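4.2 Preliminary Data

To establish feasibility before requesting continued support, the project team ran the inverse folding procedure on a target of 367 residues. The structure was first converted into the token representation described in Section 3, and no sequence information of any kind was made available to the design step. The complete token record follows.
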């Protein structure tokens, strides 16, 4: 009977948790997707690239919101059970409040490992794949980047100025400058037509001149028609992976050997050593705050809803858990500033958990 009671409770928590994770995740993802749209399309990438890039960033969102959603799930479920007098079923069946607390802690430990799993093996590969999609994509929206009377330098080493564009897609008074390896090429044309399809991607320019500057030697010639190849242009989008996109084992290798080579074009430098440590702490150690959140939430069962201190306890639990979540985020930023802050960051969740558990054990064993 006791096992069945806890199974029902766990199912209720899990249902609310999954539903809330999806709803909140989609809301946050939608907000980020709007920002991603400007970020991706302004660099000339197509809608397919934008969609894939946005979707692959979804695991990162789930990883960040998991502790807060778990707190809300436990908080809501316990209050709902109390309002419906369903907590009395636990006590009438011989389940003590400390037994109930231990079960909640067990659930939180499972969620803690789930966050560690997402943070180490799901989110980084997903973000890295999103970065590679940007890196390997062609610039599908290149034509939309060309604006009248505006210098466009979205692509690396290439600047384009268009004076006018007519309704037929013909560009008039075109200025184009390409810089490669300290050599430059300037093309000035009366007009030009952008041709982009599956077979070719080029700028067909007419009636102008080319100014080549190679090895400090200038060469100028006129042309009637010239095709400027756009197939090899490279976007200015950052293609080198960020720290949060790198696999955990690579970051660990960086910590122990800054000169190590890896296949992700990620350079291990002493200047980012602290950032790497913070990222590892976020993935591996910060999830320890999840059992603390669960433990504090168990104070909700201290009094019944009819007790005069019930509302005070309920509000205090909510505020204190919110404070713990803020502390877990804020302390991470300063965790690697010195050996003392690192020790403080490592010991803080352990100390909070032990003190809270001892305190709650002493209270619940008497009720």
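Position-by-position output of the design step:
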């Amino acid at each position: 009977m006791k096992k069945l009671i806890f199974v029902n409770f766990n199912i209720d928590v899990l249902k609310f948790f999954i539903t809330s994770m999806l709803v909140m995740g989609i809301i946050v993802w939608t907000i980020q997707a709007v920002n991603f749209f400007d970020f991706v399309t302004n660099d000339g990438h197509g809608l397919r690239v934008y969609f894939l890039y946005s979707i692959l960033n979804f695991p990162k969102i789930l990883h960040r919101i998991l502790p807060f959603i778990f707190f809300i799930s436990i908080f809501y479920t316990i209050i709902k059970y109390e309002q419906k007098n369903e907590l009395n079923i636990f006590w009438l069946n011989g389940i003590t409040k400390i037994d109930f607390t231990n079960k909640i802690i067990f659930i939180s430990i499972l969620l803690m490992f789930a966050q560690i799993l997402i943070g180490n093996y799901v989110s980084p590969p997903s973000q890295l794949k999103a970065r590679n999609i940007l890196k390997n994509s062609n610039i599908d929206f290149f034509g939309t980047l060309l604006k009248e009377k505006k210098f466009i330098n979205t692509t690396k080493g290439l600047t384009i100025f268009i004076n006018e564009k007519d309704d037929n897609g013909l560009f008039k008074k075109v200025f184009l400058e390409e810089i490669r390896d300290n050599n430059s090429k300037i093309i000035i044309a009366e007009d030009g037509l952008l041709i982009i399809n599956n077979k070719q991607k080029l700028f067909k320019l007419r009636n102008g001149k080319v100014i080549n500057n190679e090895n400090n030697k200038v060469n100028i010639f006129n042309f009637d028609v010239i095709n400027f190849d756009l197939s090899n242009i490279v976007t200015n989008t950052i293609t080198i992976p960020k720290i949060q996109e790198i696999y955990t084992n690579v970051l660990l290798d960086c910590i122990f050997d800054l000169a190590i080579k890896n296949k992700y074009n990620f350079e291990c430098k002493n200047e980012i050593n602290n950032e790497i440590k913070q990222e590892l702490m976020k993935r591996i150690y910060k999830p320890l705050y999840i059992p603390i959140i669960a433990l504090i939430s168990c104070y909700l069962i201290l009094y019944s809803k009819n007790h005069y201190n019930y509302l005070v306890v309920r509000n205090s639990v909510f505020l204190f858990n919110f404070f713990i979540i803020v502390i877990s985020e804020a302390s991470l930023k300063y965790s690697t500033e010195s050996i003392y802050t690192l020790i403080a960051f490592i010991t803080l969740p352990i100390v909070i958990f032990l003190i809270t558990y001892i305190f709650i054990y002493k209270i619940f064993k008497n009720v």
